[in-house]
Amino acid sequence: MTTIRVLVGTRKGAFILTSDESRCDWQVDGPHFPGWEVYHMNASPADPDRLYASQTSSWFGQVIQRSDDGGKTWHTPGSKPEDLLGEHGTPKGESNKFVYDTSEATGAPLTTHMWYDGTQHPWEFARVWHLEPDLDDPDTCYAGVEDAALFKTTDGGASWHELSGVRGHNTGEGWHPGAGGMCLHTIVLDPVNRNRLFVAISAVGTFRSDDNGKTWKPVNHGLVSDYIPDPTAEVGHCVHRVAIHPSNPSTLFMQKHWDVMRSDDGGDSWREVSGNLPSDFGFPIAVHPHEPETIYVVPIESDSLHWPPEGKLRVYRSRSGGEDWEALTEGLPQEHCYVNILRDAMATDRLDEAGIYFGTTGGQVYASRDHGDHWGPIVRDLPPVLSVEVQTIQ
Amino acid sequence: MIRVVLPAGLQLLAGCPREIEVEVHGAVSVASILDAVEDLYPMLKGTMREHDTGKRRPRVRFFANKTDVSLARLDTPLPAVIADGAEPLLVVGAISGG
Q1: Cα–Cα distance, A71 to B36 (Å, whole number)
Q2: Which residue, A12, A178, A188, B25, could crosslink A198 as a Cys pair with Cβ 3.0–4.6 Å?
Q3: What's the rounded Cα separation, in Å, for the pair A40 and A7?
């Protein structure tokens, strides 16, 4: 028996949707952490019961929650077992300490980046946008944060330490936030070259490390962004999402602010594959679990009109790694639809007949059980969806 | 005992009731009360004051005896009615529209 578990982060809490492999009847569990924004939930590939959640609030800051039983119960990591029992039964873990590393040994000075008015502004931690558990060790997880930096835990989320090479890159002074903040929102772990990982930062670009996160280089050659003074600059490109297929990790697919791009040399160079898309603006991009050249995007009208072109919600699929795209519309609203699909809100399961999932700012989570040919809502009327991840549990 | 009223979001996080009681040794100030609250509920560290600077988070306010004491130094002594438990210290999240 295979179970599909969909982890949905929303503006007002987290939801967990569960089905057997038929993917017909979905049990909706939640809201977890009601009233709090859950930017992202993600599961360890090594232990399907180990989940991490980024619970955040503009009022009260950041909290990391962890589940060791597949989302039935949660706690702030670092609590001792006895803390969770007894009269109070409250977790005592202090899992929300994200402090930039300025130490001489491993850190980088707390410098400034460019602010909206052109002045320099100090790096300030705001929230965790993305959690990426390690491929092998459930206690190791990476966190991409705003203001842009990469953190890592090796103790199951009890403590977090910055990998300061990203923030400390010598171009940092010229980085600036986009409207959504200067967030490190994408973390891609190379499953073949375990020393290699990629990150992407809004309004800055993509970076690659080949030494397990110690040092980083921008990998944005080939990106062209007309909204910055030098359209082909080394940094300044608003990358929205990067995805790979695990069997071919040197090929990367990118949804940029405008343009869908691909790289076949580990990010060293990029070329545009927007082809016949009705708009090449969008946020998420996903790769089919079994077909490395089949990719999915959801075109959005423009950077000022964050809704599907013509009010028709269409997923576009390319079976050739880009350039040639087909609209997938069956079961999706084809009139009066003005929702957005955010960068972390699209994912796939790993069943033979692959399932594709995405959540909208209108609170729907749509799923396809047949690679995208047919769609339907598996839940609707949730708060605006921020993120969707899918587990295929054997 | 000193009484502290927490906003809903922090009650949820700490798994505590709206009003809690803490014991403070020495001068009673917002800082010393928050130290005691965080000692009782460590998961609240960083939610009212920034981890690295200890500054009040911008959207959190502190009211004592019908007075907004948020903008004073956090170690400023609070009125006796707070120290003797006659009135609670209110921790308040800023209101928002929408």
Answers
A1: 31
A2: A188
A3: 8
Search chain B and give the residue with CA nearest A100: B52
For B10, the closest of A60, A92, A94 (CB atoms) is: A60
Cα A272 to Cα A231: distance, rounded to the nearest angstrom = 14
CB contact under 8 A, A97 and B45: yes
Q: Can you tell me which residue has the tokens 């040794």?
A: B25
Pairwise CB contact (< 8 Å): A59 & B41: no
Which residues in chain A have their CB less than 8 angstroms from residue B94's CB? 59
Residues 6+ apart with CB under 8 A from A378: A6, A17, A19, A23, A26, A357, A365, A366, A367
Q: Which amino acid is at A29?
A: D
Residue-wise pLDDT for B44-68, tens only, equals 999 999 888 889 998 899 999 999 9
Q: How far apart are CA B53 and CA A99, in angstroms?
A: 10
Closest C-alpha to B36, from B92, B82, B93: B82
Those residues whose C-beta lies under 8 Å from the C-beta of residue A100, and which sit 6 or more positions away, are A107, A108, A110, A123, A125, A149, A162, A164, A167, B52
Instruction: Return d(Cα A270, Cα A250) in angstroms, integer.
Output: 12
The pLDDT assigned to A80 comes to 63
**Structure tokens, B85:** 């438990």
Strand order across the A271-272 sheet:
A239-244, A252-256, A260-263, A271-272
What pLDDT score was predicted for residue A77? 87
Contact B46 A57 (CB under 8 A): no
Give the count of Cβ contacts less than 8 A between chain A and B. Answer: 68
- Per-residue pLDDT of A364-384, as tens digits, reads 999 999 999 999 999 999 999
Query: CA of B52, closest CA in chain A: separation in Å?
Result: 7
Asked whether this complex has an ipTM greater than 0.85, the answer is: no
* Half-sphere exposure in the Cβ direction for A235 (13 Å, CA): 23
Q: What does the alpha-carbon distance between residue A364 and residue A384 come to, in Å, rounded to a whole number?
A: 8
Tokens at A337, concatenated: 């639809």
At A179, the pLDDT band (50, 70, 90 cuts) reads confident
d(CA A31, CA A10): 9
Identify the closest residue of chain A to B96 by CA–CA distance: A59
DSSP state of B44: G
Residue A85 has pLDDT above 80, yes or no: no
Q: Which helix (H) or strand (E) holds A261?
A: strand A260-263
A15-A16-A20 Cα angle (round to 5): 150
Would you call B60 an interface residue with chain A, using a CB distance cutoff of 8 Å?
yes
